[in-house]
């Protein structure tokens, strides 16, 4: 029984590690702050949920520490509420201070008829170290 | 054994995110990297607690989650006054 639960917990941890490394690689490789937020959200949802569920199974059936289980549930709930809020706040502030989302052609990805920016606000180049 | 592999994967991801925090062009890239780094530190504390068989560090992880969120919001408010806001944005009250 214990080896079965240990294996299931290991599977959840593996999937969580996959999401986390994928998200970190996306944060390095993505060209724009808004797409980088998308990659960071993979860590905040997929990685955190899978790793904490794996640890939940571990703590319930292998380590048998019920108090730690309660704390893990609390931690997962709090991260799942706070991380999307922080991502939303970062994106909103970036848009407000004039970081323009770029389309693939190089111009602004936002419809100009929305009049979200000034006419003389130039499209800033902010594509990481790689060109 | 899988806990050990998780620790290694978390450390690799933290190195990658740290690279973005150093390279980051705008201030928001660095802020996003700091936020994700905090999330990974929370996970590292949790996994390490179970790896050593003493999950008492979970309290520290919960407190770190709270401070991580508050810190991100506080830094955003700090940089809000630092940069000029677009006039068109204010007029239209989008």
Structure description:
The complex is a heterodimer of chains A (131) and B (94). By secondary structure, chain A is mainly alpha-helical. Chain A is 68% helix and 0% strand. By secondary structure, chain B is an all-alpha fold. Chain B has one domain (2-83): Orthogonal Bundle (Helix Hairpins). Helices cover 81% and strands 0% of the residues of chain B. In chain B, α1 runs antiparallel to α2 (27-51) and α2 (27-51) runs antiparallel to α3 (58-80). The radius of gyration of chain B is 18 Å and the shape is flat. The termini of chain B are far apart. The mean pLDDT of chain B is 85. At the A-B interface, α1, α2 and α3 of A face α1, α2, α3 and α4 of B.
How would you sum up this structure in a few lines?
The complex is a heterodimer of chains A (131) and B (94). Chain A has 131 residues and is mainly alpha-helical.
Features:
heterodimer; A: mainly alpha; 3 helices; 68% helix; 0% strand; B: 4 helices; flat
Distance between the termini of chain B: 52 Å
Largest interface: A-B, 59 and 57 residues
The secondary-structure class of chain A comes to mainly alpha
Q: Mind telling me the C-alpha Rg of chain B? A: 18 Å
Note the beta-strand portion of chain B. Answer: under 5%
**Envelope shape of chain B:** flat
Q: In total, how many beta strands of chain A?
A: 0
Largest beta sheet of chain A, briefly?
none
Give the number of helices of chain B: 4
Helix content of chain A: 55-70%
End-to-end separation of chain A in angstroms reads 53 Å
Residue runs with pLDDT of under 50 for 5 or more positions of chain A? 119-131
Reading off the top of the CATH hierarchy, the class of chain B is best stated as: Mainly Alpha
Average pLDDT score of chain B: 85
Number of helices of chain A: 3
**Oligomeric form of this entry?**
heterodimer
Q: Please outline the major beta sheet of chain B.
A: none
